[in-house]
Design goal:
Layout (H helix, E strand, L loop, with lengths): L2 E8 L11 E8 L2 H10 L4 E5 L5 E3 L3 E2 L3 E5 L6 E4 L2 E5 L4 H10 L15 H7 L2 E2 L2 E2 L4 E8 L5 E4 L6 E2 L2 E2 L6 E9 L5 H18 L6 E4 L5 E2 L2 E2 L2 H7 L6 E2 L2 E3 L6 E4 L5 H19 L8 E3 L1
Parallel strand pairs: 2-5, 2-6, 3-6, 4-22
Antiparallel strand pairs: 1-2, 7-8, 8-15, 9-10, 11-12, 11-15, 13-14, 16-21, 17-18, 19-20, 20-21
Bound molecules: flavin-adenine dinucleotide (FAD).
The site of flavin-adenine dinucleotide (FAD) has 30 residues, from strand 3, helix 3, strand 9, strand 15 and strand 16.
């Protein structure tokens, strides 16, 4: 068996905001063959590829049969192969970091606490502080959704940018990637990973469902701004619509404090964008992907 199919499937566990939404059609490939089969079966539907749903906003409470959700979390094989790790698209960054540590491979400590998959991370060029996933990518295998053929992409300079990759301009799905390997020390890796996690839990509102930073850091006249500082100045900290709230603890996050709906989140985002535009003449750009 390569592919599992569900009808009328609740997406609540497949978006970290924990919004209630149902997909009429949903597939879980177990491997690359299953991913190809899912692509074949959904030729006439709007395909929505998801990893862990940790950077998305669902906008509908019901996605009818015009949509097909293809969720990759069961494609989760990872292995070391000489100078690289070969990682299926649905491997979580958490598992990647622990696998690297077990094999004394350094550099992946920043991944441990980012709750996405390898595929989602490559699309978003996920990272924190000075590290991004792009620094470790040797090649990426994708399936071209037009020709249905597998292609190997070796990213060149400029392919990855801040929370963005050129995969977004290509009609492809990510299948697996080859990541670089460099020697690390087991104890040092473990200490760094736990230190990063501690620091993030101190700062972030991890006690409520959320999908990470909502907006990219905006720039105006070559100056970069922190979203949370802008929000504090326009009174958005703690501002709530329905069950969705601009976090009290860290206003760069929107949290689901009380059964938020897709509509609550969308309305709160619009309010944030318009207050910042009116007050500072700054255009906010969403880091989240909106599933319309
Ligand atoms: C508490 C918390 C902390 C976070 N901290 C960070 C952080 O420090 N740094 C950071 O960069 N991000 C952070 N994030 C955001 C998020 O975890 C990352 O962007 C992550 O890489 C998204 O991966 P995902 O698998 O959840 O992607 P999803 O949310 O499932 O999808 C994101 C996008 O990628 C597309 N996609 C997913 N898989 C594939 C595929 N195989 N092929 C083609 N397209 C695909 C989806 O269609 C969607 O457009 C955080 C989120 C949370 C909830």
């Amino acid at each position: 068996m390569n592919l599992i199919e569900f009808k009328n499937f609740s997406l609540i566990k497949y978006n970290t905001l924990r919004l209630r939404s149902v997909a009429q059609v949903c597939y879980f490939p177990l491997n690359i063959e299953g991913l190809s089969e899912a692509i074949e079966k959904t030729q006439h539907q709007k395909r929505i590829f998801l990893g862990n749903g940790s950077n998305i906003l669902l906008t509908k409470e019901h996605y009818d049969e015009q949509y097909a959700f293809i969720i990759t979390t069961m494609m989760n094989n990872i292995e070391r192969n000489g100078p690289e790790m070969i990682v299926d698209t649905g491997v979580t960054l958490h598992d990647l970091a622990w696998f690297a540590m077990d094999h004394e491979i350094g550099g992946y400590e920043f991944c441990e606490d980012i709750p996405g998959t390898a595929g989602g991370a490559l699309i978003m060029n996920a990272g924190q502080w000075q590290w991004t996933i792009s620094q470790y990518v040797r090649w990426v295998d994708v399936i071209d959704l037009e020709t249905k053929k597998m292609l190997r992409i070796v990213p060149e300079e400029g392919f990855f940018q801040y929370r963005y990759s050129k995969f977004n301009e290509m009609n492809v799905v990510i299948a697996r990637a080859g990541l670089s390997v460099s020697q690390g020390d087991y104890r040092e890796i473990l200490e760094r990973m736990l230190e990063f996690k501690k620091e993030r839990y101190f700062k972030q509102p991890r006690n409520y469902p959320n999908a990470g930073s909502v907006f990219k850091r905006p720039t105006k006249n070559n100056e970069t701004f922190f979203v949370w500082k802008l929000f504090d100045e326009v009174g958005l900290r703690g501002f709530q619509i329905g069950g969705a709230q601009v976090s009290q603890k860290h206003p760069g996050f929107i949290v689901n404090v009380d059964h938020a709906t897709c509509g609550d989140c969308a309305a709160l985002i619009s309010e944030c964008i318009s207050r910042v535009k009116n007050h500072f003449d700054i255009d906010l750009e969403l880091e989240w992907r909106v599933i319309e």
